[in-house]
Amino acid sequence: MFKRINAVFLLTICSSICVANQTPSALKKFIPNDWEILSQANGDLNQDGAQDTALIIQPKHKNQQQRKLLVLFQSTQQPQQQLQLKLARNIPNWTYRANEQCVEDALDESALTIKNQRLDLQFNTSPSCANTYGFIHTYGFKLKNKQFHLVGFDTYSLDKLTGKQDQISLNFLTGKAKLTTIPNIFAEIETPAKVIWKTLKSTSNDTLENISFASDEFNHQFSMQYIGEKP
């Protein structure tokens, strides 16, 4: 797992180029003219066996700060299956950072994933040309009572100078937090990871509909309210 995480961080050092997906005809009615798909994930979100779709879309070439997240459910009604809009919400402007020096865009084509009825949204805030900390924050949501409730939060941090890697994983279904530290991922001799388990101080009332993602600092501070520690 940690080698995979390390590879993700090393890749973020290089500049990323966002290549928009070609838009299938079934999706076109949900995407305004002169907009494009930044990230797309497909999978069953409502346990009906059909392939649902999550999209992050943005205007082409200008005002890309005006990003939106769309969740589309595949109707199982016959005779013709169709996508139906379940959720639409704005993505904060701060995530578009491609014009800032040494700062990567916080969202790219891999920002969305769907697995086991869970929708993950990943923010990558690692600087591209600085020997400082890099961060990846992932929020996981599952559908319950017609809303996407926050069920998990994972944050990975890497000190590029010392090689110290920290992982915090909050599981709101079990009420537990797992804190993992590797002293130096660059060491020739692999050092065993230090793992600490904690009980969350409270449950989460956040949903995909109401969580703010208000700022970069919001991500860095998120776990503190539940475990009292900053990554």
TrEMBL record:
<feature type="signal peptide">
    <location>
        <begin position="1"/>
        <end position="20"/>
    </location>
</feature>
<keyword id="KW-0732">Signal</keyword>
<protein>
    <submittedName>
        <fullName>Uncharacterized protein</fullName>
    </submittedName>
</protein>
